[in-house]
Write a structure and sequence with these properties.
CATH architecture of the largest domain: Alpha-Beta Complex
CATH topology of the largest domain: sialyltransferase cstii, chain A
CATH class of the largest domain: Alpha Beta
Number of domains: 2
Mean pLDDT: 83
Structural class: alpha/beta
Strand content: 15-25%
Largest sheet: 7 strands, parallel
Radius of gyration: 18 Å
Number of helices: 9
Helix content: 25-40%
Shape: globular
Length: 225
């Protein structure tokens, strides 16, 4: 992402004492534009207290994250965008509209009820984005790679939605343990549950490389920083 600013504008921001706070806040906002973190539910998030690092990014949360937000030390508190399948979209209302800029719905079945998105928008006063064509196209790519499931996971859909809409230079994944390493057993901190949830993590791992190439974005685990 290239953000244009002239030398005169930069001098104006830096040298005017009355604008010192504005400059600091603006620089922090610009930094967040180039650093996005999607927070998932894998156990690696609990290994280190990285909540502060997460909150320094633009943050995307996945559905059912509310209980985990009580652990500020590990998960942080910032929420810029929240994503869920369109079937469970209305449940995002419980996150609190004042914290969320926009809600994202993933139509994993290739279609969705537009009334559900409109209801969430009416409840929260926030826009709701449902990129049907985008996710259908990527689900086709997933199946063409030999995906052993009808659709990719919400986490993968969120990665694609971030790259398409926010176009960050750096996208960090927190708690995407099995997608990043398909040899790892799937585990979710939400229900303290192990086992396979039905997703084809091996194929999603391959698809992730296609997303990197398509959007020219660095996608890495947060812990690699």
């Amino acid at each position: 992402m290239v953000i244009g600013i002239t030398k005169e504008q930069l001098d104006w921001l830096i040298n005017d004492p009355e604008r010192a706070d504005y400059f600091e806040n603006t620089m922090a906002a610009l930094k967040r534009l180039n650093r996005v973190c999607i927070v998932g539910h894998g156990p690696s998030v609990r290994e280190k207290p990285r909540g502060q690092d997460i909150d320094q990014c633009t943050v995307v949360r996945l559905k059912n994250c509310k209980r985990l937000l009580a652990d500020k030390e590990h998960y942080g508190r910032r929420i810029d965008y929240a994503a869920a399948s369109t079937e469970t979209l209305k449940g995002l209302h419980g996150l609190g509209a004042k914290h969320v800029k926009e809600y994202w719905g993933y139509p994993k079945r290739g279609k969705y009820n537009a009334k559900v998105a409109q209801e969430l928008q009416d409840l929260t006063g926030r826009p709701v984005w449902v990129p049907l064509t985008l996710t259908n196209d990527w689900n086709k790519r997933f199946r063409d790679l030999g995906g052993q499931h009808k659709n990719m996971s919400l986490g993968m859909a969120a990665i694609i939605m971030v790259c398409e809409k926010l176009k960050p230079e750096n996208l960090f994944l927190a708690g995407f343990d099995t997608m990043l390493d398909p040899d790892k057993e799937y585990y979710t901190c939400l229900k303290e549950r192990k086992g396979h949830p039905g997703h084809d993590w091996a194929t999603e791992h391959i698809l992730l490389d296609q997303v990197r190439a398509e959007y020219d974005t660095v996608i890495a685990p947060l812990w690699s920083e």
